User: Fold this.
Amino acid sequence: MDFRVKIKVAKPRLVNPSKFTPVFKRAAGRVRSHKWVKQQEARVAECAAQQAEVVARKLVVVTRFMERLRPARRKIATAALAAITMWVGVHVMFGPNGTVAYRHKRSEAHDLQQQINSLEKENTALSDQINALETDPKAIEKEAREQLHYAKPDEVIYVAPHQDRPAPPAAHSAQK
Assistant:
């Protein structure tokens, strides 16, 4: 069996050239008439008009909102700029590397430098004392007398007893 589909093709009519020429469109294997094409074009135009109307309404709403927002926009921008400035100021003052931390570290460095200077002076004094004990016989004799309580022959050493209580105040001759 031979199955063949017959498709009818409409013959174009001759139309007055001043008018439009008929347009035939093929859809789903059939030739559509000019009237049908015009209806489809009208529907498309109607949908486009409805969409344009919706877009226009939305545009009007957005425009009205922006017009209402315009006077407040400067105030909002100024407030936002002030907030950002305040945040930066607080961060500069109290942040981990802010001015407060800088002053604290600077005073700590100053205290440490003073401590280094005092330890260097003490180190210099002890070095001088060591040098004197190694070379000067008078310094050796002085340390032996003071620390070890040594004495030369025929010398008597007097040592004051330690007092646990403070001494009473001395009597003044002006009092009677």
